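Example 3.2
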Amino acid sequence: MFIFKKTIIGFALANLLTASAVMAQSAAEKQVQQPIPSGSNFLGLGIGAFPKTSGSSELRTMVLPVVQYSWGNVAYVSGLKAGVWGYTSADRSLRIGLYAEPRFGYDASDSPRTAGMADRDFAVDAGPSVRWTTPAGAVNFEYGFDVTGRSNGQAAQIQFIRPLLTEQGFRLNGLVSATWQNAAMNTYYWGKRASETTDQLPRNVGAGVGFSAGLTGLYTVGTSGALFFGASINRLSDAQANSLIAERSYTPVIYLGYGWRL
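Structure, written as tokens:
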């Protein structure tokens, strides 16, 4: 009887430890899989700064709502990106689905190098996505098509996110990525049409791969509030950096805001 009781107690403890490990894994997964490294769903408001036009040396600022919310293994909203999962492995380490994400255009009057050109319009990229979560971090792969028909271009990105700090009060992720854009997309955002050049000849821009590295963080304030921030430096592809409108080959993106953990 004593042995039987020990067996039952041992079995219960093993289940409790396993459940705790799953919960901890879930929190770590959420931190590494989201732009803002929160261990839970998140709602906030932030201000961001990025180049006014493609490759511009001047920055523009925008105030944007920030939403990070996941509906189990079905769908999610993460920053400005939204998606649905069609396949999730039993251990949740591999997910395959579809995503959609906005691509901001620019006002040609914002830079002397684009003055006189037509504005480049807001667009939406959408396509298949894959997320693979490993003990070292999360690998994200996306292949997007311009579904709004602005550029009729395509882009692919592979990104690696690694948790650097996982404390409850302060979380920090590091990320690196490589992004390929085809000639159609680069020509729309970085090139000039025949009507926009003095010799009436178009300036097309070829395909290329750019690189990015950055940090994203979250600092807990009170029971549910949090400050969030992020900064990255982007190395333009050679095709983009050599275009007529680019003023620099490295461009920054920074943001800061406040939100609430849900």
